[in-house]
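From the pipeline queue, job 12 of 40. The input is one protein chain; the requested action is below.

Action: predict structure.
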Amino acid sequence: HYVYSTFSNLDIVSKSARWAEYNVANPHVPDKPLQFLTYLTLFKPEMRFCAGGTVAAAPAEKLPLAALYMELEKGRYLQFTVIGNYSQLPEACKTVLQLVKERGIVTRGGWYIEHYVNRHLSTPENELTTHILVPIP
C-alpha cells in the first residue's frame, strides 16, 4: 500500500526538491497522521515521479487533495545499492537507467523504486542506504 504525490516531466536532478516539498506537506488523514512504514520514490524512465511512503493498509478515510493511493506492484526487482548522501541519487539513477539500456536488461514496464532504507533524520549522511530497484519479469 502506497500513499503518494505525483510529479510529471521532471528532470531527475530536480526530484530532491520535490521530495523536500512533499516532506513539508506530508499527506495525512484528517486528525490522524499517516504512519509511513517506509519512504519510497517511484519513477519511470520517461521522468514521471511519485514521492510517498508505504502504509500498513489502504487508508479508510479520504486523503487530502494532493495525496493519492495505489497498491504497489508485486514482482521481482533487480537491486542496486547506494550508500551515502542523497545528493548522489540523481546521478546514480541516471547510471542505473543507462546500464539497463546498455546491457539490454529486460524490464516489465512497472515503476522503478528508490527505497530509503534508513531515515535521514537519524542516520549519519555517510551511512544513508538507498536501494534502486528495477522491475524485471
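Job complete. The chain has two helices and nine strands.
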